[in-house]
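Problem 3 from the worked examples.
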Amino acid sequence: MKPHRAQVSGPFTMMKPSDFKDSRLRHISEQSVFQVHERDGSASIPRWPWFVFLSGAMGCLICSSLSHLLACHSKRFNLFFWRLDYAGISLMIVCSFFAPIYYAFYCNPHWQLIYLTSITVLGILAIITLLAPAFSSSRYRPFRAILFLVMGFSGVIPAAHAVILHWGQPHVFVSIGYELVMAVLYAAGTGFYVSRIPERWKPGAFDIAGHSHQIFHVFVVLAALAHSAASLIILDFRQRSACAR
């Protein structure tokens, strides 16, 4: 007769959801990182569009950090990394559309596909254009700013559609309010970027701190925070609202 061996739990032991005594921990353990489960457990809302936005925002800031750090290395690096910076901004704009459009048109997959495909194609074309060396010069600074604004404000159409589609839903109105704040912040940052205020008023005084490009980045981060709030609100709305059958 073989001796009985006691099972010892270790850090690598697989645990099942039923092993959790606390009901809240059990509920969390049963959820996928990429799914938001509805209260009745009948359906689940994918969370991947939210992570698309986060990835785009982090990718944009990483590209910007690399550009500011390495663009001064040489002329070759300067051309490459500033183009990478512009491509990162386009990436962030495109990724910002995924969460609100996906959740707002969750019950309308055709419109969802049309809007997401349109902004993705527009973003790819913008990135290809911005990666061209000819558009990296300061002469095309206004053109780049206009391109970013066109991409950003192309969201007016799906936003208006979402308001009409979900008329009377307070979550949607609050989310649109945050998106308007985001648009104002982006526009203000772009205004500083194009006008080169305040360094144009006092050249040399803002070379280290207070430069228009730095102000632009502050507005970009604030706009991203506003968009985060809008996306979470529309996600909460989708969790609470079932699609009509």
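Problem 4, a separate protein:
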Amino acid sequence: MLPAFDASLSLPSTPYNYTVLDQELSAALQEFGNNLNIRVNVSAEVKGRIRGRMPDLPAREFLDRLTNLYNLQWYYDGLVLYVSAASEAQSRLLVLKPISFDAFKAALDTLNISDERYAVRAAPGNGIVLVSGPPRFIALVDQTLSGLVAEAQARPHAADKQPRESILKLFRGSSTMVIRDGRPEAPYSSDAPHQDSMVREPAPGQR
């Protein structure tokens, strides 16, 4: 299997000792990231204060406890831990055509975008998919589908004599993954950061 972006959130199993007397919730989440060397993006909709001492829990349980107590959601995309209010969660119906659900789901799994906590369900007929989750998750799912559709539409028709190579680039921070003819290749890093995006490059001979 070709390597992909590592979107799993790996946290230490030892207790996360953090004493809070009276602190903004967003500040506590930022401090959580600082202490564990994880970049954290906290939505402006995350509000509230933490008062009193938090129990000593492993880091993942500490994060889950905060999200449960304050009605939050979190998603890690491999570079940044995004924390948003549950009220910001989105549900969308996406048209898959000409992509099959299996190909779409396989791409999400390969790129480590899938998260078992958030739904990606095919509607009857396999032409529509329902996705639900926090904004960052929805954005990556949408980008992936757009890239797959663009790649499929760029494929040559049967009447074309010369095969054309389709190349997509998925930028995530300073990491770049190339998807060539629908198959992801090994990611590589660049010193120049990019905004998250997916770009289809012209095939050789089309420049």
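Solution to problem 4. The chain has two domains: 15-87, 89-155+163-201. The chain has four helices and 15 strands.
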